[in-house]
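ARCHIVE CARD
CATEGORY: sequence design from structure
SOURCE FIELD: tokenized fold
FIELD CONTENT:
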């Protein structure tokens, strides 16, 4: 953090505030890691985002825990734990750039689809959720361990398939991200990833994160269901772009 110039520090604060305004309004976000990776090492960004994510999710579920879809959460959580274990194990074995671009394509396509159907609804297709749940949970845990905040995108896609009401969607995604943060944070601590640089980044980011979360909470309160669905779709599309051009 000491190596950042004034312009980079301003960029850092701006991205944190915007990212957590998005997360506060939708329950998840995906732009933090791809954008901050332009000025900081991923070794700093990803553990920092894990710590901030715990606080941000806690702020959401503190007042909305009654809206969490506990049955759906219990189904996907064990698969998330498996994904975290795989992410830690394969961290140094796979080409992260290739994975990022593949994920970017998937997220962009789904985001575009989710946005279009808010204008032109199509006939619902019944999907085998008993098969999708293990895949989605493992993938989200794995991606979250490798790419930090990107896990929220896959949880958003998964819970969007379940078609919950927006308040239940937001609270449940925040809850699963809180659980993922605990799993990831434990893994990063065990492997010595919470370095002094990470701690300094967290100290600088926390005020911006709180400000962004407050802004996001106020924004979501003024959205109707259709606008909320479009917001989620736009976040998915925007989150995919840094992955595709990285």
């Amino acid at each position: 953090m000491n190596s950042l110039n004034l312009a980079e520090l301003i960029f850092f604060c701006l991205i944190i505030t915007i990212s957590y305004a998005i997360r506060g309004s939708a329950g998840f976000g995906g732009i933090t890691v791809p954008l901050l990776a332009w000025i900081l090492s991923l070794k700093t960004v990803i553990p920092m985002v894990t710590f901030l994510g715990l606080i941000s999710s806690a702020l959401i579920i503190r007042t909305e825990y009654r809206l969490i879809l506990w049955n759906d959460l219990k189904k996907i959580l064990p698969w998330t734990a498996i994904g975290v274990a795989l992410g830690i194990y394969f961290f140094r074995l796979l080409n992260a750039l290739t994975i990022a671009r593949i994920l970017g394509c998937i997220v962009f396509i789904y985001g575009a689809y989710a946005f279009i159907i808010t204008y032109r609804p199509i006939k619902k297709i019944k999907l085998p959720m008993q098969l999708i749940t293990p895949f989605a949970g493992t993938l989200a845990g794995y991606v979250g361990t490798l790419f930090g905040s990107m896990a929220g995108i896959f949880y958003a896609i998964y819970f969007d398939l379940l078609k919950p009401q927006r308040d239940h969607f937001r609270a449940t995604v925040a809850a699963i991200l809180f659980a993922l943060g605990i799993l990831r944070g434990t893994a990063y601590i065990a492997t010595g990833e919470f370095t002094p640089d990470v701690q300094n980044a967290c100290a600088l980011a926390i005020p911006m994160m709180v400000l962004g979360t407050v802004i996001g909470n106020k924004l979501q309160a003024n959205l109707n269901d259709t606008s909320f669905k479009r917001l989620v779709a736009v976040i998915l599309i925007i989150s995919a772009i840094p992955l595709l051009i990285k």
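CARD ANNOTATION: The CA atoms of residues 24 and 213 lie 4 Å apart. The chain has one domain: 6-245.
SHELF: design records, drawer C
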